[in-house]
């Protein structure tokens, strides 16, 4: 075993252990939090919480570009050539993009709140105020820069600890609100507290890590110069974000359209299934986060065979692990829902099974996203996501009209299946 191979495996093992362990803990905490929230609020109020959160997230996705993937790619290149000043300028550019994007997204949410609230099934009186409160956290949207910095420095442990602390804060506050018999407003305040703590803690620790590594003066650096020094960074940033915008917007727009077509109670049923599905997907997230820097390094160094082998091993392992866990759950889903979330949500069994299948398909191909980005095939990734989004959009209304909430879940399955097949085909062609 060569020294480089040993170092790669050691980094992957260390980073995966932290990120996967944290996601297991966070997922367990999130399910408990969802269990308490569902029992405290019921389907209708859970639907209102989901509608507000989805609207704010959609506006945030559309108006705020997250620079972390592009910054990571070009920062690794700056590190390889020993360009410390260029590294600082990249981080400053990232901070500027985060700051401007956060302000624009927050103000847009607040301006649109009164108009949008009744359109998506919210009360015209209280709905806008829920949106104002939730959108306030967007003014402090520095998490993307913090993520890039900590991952470039292999401090996945710091990110994991912050994520666990944030999930624990929300769980504790949710238990307090439930036991005290607090209403819906309390759960919006809890959401705000979690978002603020997560964003600000991450940024604070990232800046501390930079100082510890000897990178001082980031706020005095000329961030705009990084655009000239790194040709293609804006294109890469836009393409990587456009892919996320399409994918995540589809993952949120369905909630808003469902609210407009049906009612908050139906949204609550759908949201229950989606939250469980998202937990399954996020268990695969640490793998994507951990292998992206390694894939970028392997491709940059021309080690194609090791690059390909890593993708295959990761994809097969995730699929096998998920099938072992998911099949018993899917066979007993209605009984599990009744025990965990209460009899009010038993009708969500079919929805949850469809969404679990959807999440398994997506998670099995989760390594293809960082693989294509590392290969510089961001345009191909955008094309696949555009086609998948069109299929989702064209199928959503007819599916909901024919099958109700279950139809929305089927459209989600169509989206993830087409995206995974498209990425796999594109990756196969790109590597020759």
UniProtKB/TrEMBL annotation:
<keyword id="KW-1133">Transmembrane helix</keyword>
<dbReference type="InterPro" id="IPR050833">
    <property type="entry name" value="Poly_Biosynth_Transport"/>
</dbReference>
<feature type="transmembrane region" description="Helical">
    <location>
        <begin position="129"/>
        <end position="146"/>
    </location>
</feature>
<dbReference type="GO" id="GO:0005886">
    <property type="term" value="C:plasma membrane"/>
</dbReference>
<keyword id="KW-0812">Transmembrane</keyword>
<protein>
    <submittedName>
        <fullName>Membrane protein involved in the export of O-antigen and teichoic acid</fullName>
    </submittedName>
</protein>
<feature type="transmembrane region" description="Helical">
    <location>
        <begin position="409"/>
        <end position="427"/>
    </location>
</feature>
<feature type="transmembrane region" description="Helical">
    <location>
        <begin position="158"/>
        <end position="178"/>
    </location>
</feature>
<feature type="transmembrane region" description="Helical">
    <location>
        <begin position="310"/>
        <end position="333"/>
    </location>
</feature>
<keyword id="KW-0472">Membrane</keyword>
<feature type="transmembrane region" description="Helical">
    <location>
        <begin position="380"/>
        <end position="403"/>
    </location>
</feature>
<feature type="transmembrane region" description="Helical">
    <location>
        <begin position="345"/>
        <end position="368"/>
    </location>
</feature>
<feature type="transmembrane region" description="Helical">
    <location>
        <begin position="95"/>
        <end position="117"/>
    </location>
</feature>
<feature type="transmembrane region" description="Helical">
    <location>
        <begin position="16"/>
        <end position="38"/>
    </location>
</feature>
<dbReference type="Pfam" id="PF13440">
    <property type="entry name" value="Polysacc_synt_3"/>
</dbReference>
<keyword id="KW-1003">Cell membrane</keyword>
């Amino acid at each position: 075993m060569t020294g480089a191979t040993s170092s790669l495996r050691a980094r992957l093992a260390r980073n995966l252990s932290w990120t996967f362990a944290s996601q297991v803990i966070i997922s367990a905490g999130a399910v408990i939090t969802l269990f308490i929230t569902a029992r405290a609020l019921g389907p209708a109020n859970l639907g209102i919480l989901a509608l507000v959160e989805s609207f704010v997230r959609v506006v945030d996705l559309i108006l705020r570009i997250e620079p972390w993937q592009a910054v990571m790619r070009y920062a690794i290149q700056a590190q390889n050539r020993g360009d410390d000043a260029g590294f600082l300028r990249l981080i400053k550019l990232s901070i500027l993009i985060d700051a401007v994007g956060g302000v624009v997204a927050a103000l847009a949410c607040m301006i649109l709140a009164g108009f949008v609230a009744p359109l998506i099934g919210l009360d015209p009186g209280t709905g806008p105020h829920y949106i104002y409160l939730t959108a306030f956290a967007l003014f402090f949207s520095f998490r993307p820069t913090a993520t890039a910095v900590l991952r470039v420095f292999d401090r996945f442990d710091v990110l994991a600890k912050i994520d666990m602390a944030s999930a624990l804060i929300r769980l504790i506050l949710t238990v307090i609100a439930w036991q005290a018999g607090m209403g819906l407003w309390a759960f919006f305040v809890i959401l705000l507290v979690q978002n603020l703590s997560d964003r600000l803690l991450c940024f604070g620790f990232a800046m501390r890590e930079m100082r510890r590594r000897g990178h001082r003066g980031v706020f005095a650096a000329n961030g705009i110069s990084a655009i000239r020094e790194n040709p293609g960074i804006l294109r890469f940033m836009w393409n990587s974000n456009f892919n996320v915008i399409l994918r995540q917007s589809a993952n949120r727009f369905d909630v808003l359209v469902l609210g407009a077509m049906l009612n908050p109670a139906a949204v609550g049923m759908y949201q229950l299934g989606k939250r469980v599905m998202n937990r399954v997907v996020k268990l695969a997230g640490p793998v994507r986060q951990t292998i992206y820097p390694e894939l970028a390094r392997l491709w940059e160094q021309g080690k194609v065979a090791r690059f390909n082998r890593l993708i295959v091993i990761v994809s097969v392992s995730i699929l096998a692990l998920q099938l072992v866990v998911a099949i018993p759950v899917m066979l007993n889903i209605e009984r599990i829902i009744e025990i965990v979330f209460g009899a009010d949500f038993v009708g969500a069994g079919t929805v949850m099974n469809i969404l679990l299948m959807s999440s398994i398909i997506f998670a099995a191909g989760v390594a293809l996203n960082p693989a294509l980005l590392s290969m510089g095939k961001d345009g191909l990734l955008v094309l696949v996501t555009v086609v998948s989004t069109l299929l989702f959009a064209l199928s959503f209304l007819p599916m909901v009209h024919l099958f109700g909430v279950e139809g929305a879940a089927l459209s989600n399955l169509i989206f993830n299946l087409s995206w995974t097949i498209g990425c796999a085909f594109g990756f196969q062609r790109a590597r020759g």
